[in-house]
Amino acid sequence: MQDTLFAQTGNGIKKIEVNATTNLGKIEPTMWGVFFEDINLGADGGIYAELVKNRSFEFYKPLMGWTVLQQPSREGSVLVLNRQEAQTSNPRYLSVKLDHTKKGNLSIINEGFRGMGIKSGLQYNFSVLYKQVANPIQLHIELVNSKNEIIGQALLETMNTHGEWKKLNTSFTATETEAKAKLKIWFEGDGEINMDMISLFPQDTWKQRPGGMRADMIQLLADLKPGFIRFPGGCIVEGYDLAQRYQWKKTIGPLEERQLIINRWNTEIAHRPTLDYFQTFGLGFYEYFQLAEDIGAAPLPILNCGMACQFNSSELVPIDQLDPYVQDALDLIEFANGDTSSNYGRVRANLGHPTSFNLTMMGVGNENWGPQYLERVKIFEKAIKSKYPNFKLVYSSGTDPGGERFETLNTALRSMKADIIDEHYYRKPDWFLNNATRYDHYPRNGSKVFAGEYAAQSEFTVSPNNKNNWLTAISEAAFMTGLERNAAVVNMASYAPLFAHAEGWQWTPDLIWVDNLRSYGTPDYFVQKMYSNNKGNKVIAITLEGNTLIGQDSLYASASMDTVANELIIKIVNASSKIQNTSFSLTGVSKVSPLVNTLVMQHSLLDMNSFEKPENVAPKASSFKIKGKSFNYELGSYSFHVIRIRLIQ
Ligand code: AHR
């Protein structure tokens, strides 16, 4: 398999020249970013650290995730009430009627998202919205392990709220680490209590924000130093139908007013149904902007353009009713950037961020296509550009990197001078190798490219057997030399999807895998990190015996300058099974540091990472000494190298 997959190599030492005086284009700060979508339990059950599933009883089945235990059973003592008319965004709540209930007689248990990941010694914040009219009731809050033993507990006493909803909080420390814990609440007392928004969060969230995000997952993102973060998707932007599209205004403000909807990945992948998958929007647009700011990434929201997913319902809003969609886009810009005297700027300030989030770009539609798409985006463009002339818009080129659909959109978008065109490719590893030159012939002027979703598929797109192995990662590394070499055209790129829960995924491969307690980066993750942490800001020429190095003898390369650190950065992939010996000469530099730093990934093609061996496939750092401006360098079989050389003026 190994030798037929890639071209054979020639013999002898390969002479490679890197010329620092060349300038093949600027590398934008946004070049390497991340694509976030709530797929594979990415948000709920993923980065959103809420441990209670279906905290507001709004899932299709109101008690999904909950078990009621009662001895002896009493008809009507636990009911789901629906105040639809009074509270449209969060109509349901739980009513529990007690009749001098004693210890253990009545309890409700939440199973979490495939269990709750609990850490020994860590503090947990419990909260509930409740109302009651009679005597105090005792709520016994317990975390139990898989053997039903208590591993954390607290006692809360309610009071007569005279029919008003009040919030009750407590914190307690867990005494054991458990990946599959459950939350049990049992009642003691007499009378009726109504409950909603039953919530449990760890205190070790990202930046210790109460109700925040899972720190280990966000740290993996931050370590990428991403140039941008695209959110919230992906197909969830479009929704199965328009009613289920993503609407950012419904994701900000008090949690209990954020109206939950089904996650379109719930039933989308027939062989991986996830019937308990909903979007609670606890992680909403304010939080996404905050996340972008935290990790130093430019925010890139993608908005619905009046079209539902064309693989699903294909619903369209009639053109004469598109205004609210366009208004959502205009209001989002004001929400992100407007000063505090503007309507939505004030909303942002009231949420805790008076200064701008510096939004400079937005996507109109995700994977939409056809004349109906072009008709709609022109309306968005006119409205947005007439108010914000310098604001950049990202447009869809459909689902595939070629074919009639792509060609039609690409031609039309380029003729309307689209700022940025979003291209997607989920293809086999050999496609990535064969397409490392894809952008070499793209026009240097005009629309820029956003490689908005890509990942090598070891089998085929949406195969449940796709793996994140060294084969997929090294083929992406080779392809990315072509992205970097053409940074004058490709201004942004992001692997997709980003996260997957090992027990709750729908789509594989993914960049980062998690379970309830652990997370690891795949080989593909480390390739992304090698690029984004060694970016440079100017592309320079790298040639093999006078020709641009674009796959000859299975060698793929790009080179850049970091003019701030004054370093020359070479990225080179040997995608063959043979060791290849090279000699590098550096031209256009007067003197270089004798110490050269390298990061190298060299593995067998089927090697993977896992929870047990998270860095089985990961770069190794080393350095070597050189004399003068040339050096010999060995490229092992199936290897990817980043070589950094400091210039001395
Ligand atoms: O990344 C998974 C899905 O692939 C995205 O939601 C969609 O845009 C693409 O089809």
Shape category: globular
Distance between the termini: 48 Å
Count of separate structural domains:
3
What is the CATH fold-level name of the largest domain?
Answer: TIM Barrel
Q: Can you say what the CATH homologous superfamily of the largest domain is?
A: Glycosidases
Low-confidence region ranges: 1-9
User: Are any ligands bound, and if so which?
Assistant: alpha-L-arabinofuranose
In the CATH hierarchy, what is the architecture of the largest domain at level 2? Alpha-Beta Barrel
> How large is the radius of gyration?
27 Å
Oligomer kind: single chain
Q: Which structural class matches the secondary elements?
A: alpha+beta
Set out the fold topology.
Blueprint: H1 2-5, E1 14-19, E2 25-26, E3 34-35, E4 66-70, E5 78-82, E6 92-101, E7 106-110, E8 116-118, E9 123-132, E10 138-144, E11 150-157, E12 166-173, E13 178-202, H2 215-223, E14 228-231, H3 235-238, E15 261-262, H4 265-268, E16 278-279, H5 285-294, E17 298-303, H6 323-337, H7 343-351, E18 361-364, H8 371-387, E19 392-396, H9 403-415, E20 420-427, H10 429-434, E21 448-456, H11 470-485, E22 490-495, E23 499-501, E24 512-514, E25 519-521, H12 523-532, E26 538-544, E27 547-548, E28 555-562, E29 567-574, E30 580-587, E31 591-602, E32 620-625, E33 630-635, E34 639-648
Parallel strand pairs: 1-30, 3-14, 14-17, 17-18, 18-19, 19-20, 20-21, 21-22, 23-24
Antiparallel strand pairs: 1-26, 2-26, 4-7, 5-6, 6-13, 7-13, 8-13, 9-12, 9-13, 10-11, 10-13, 15-16, 24-25, 26-27, 26-28, 28-29, 29-34, 30-33, 31-32, 31-34
Helix pairs in contact: 6-7, 11-12
This protein binds alpha-L-arabinofuranose.
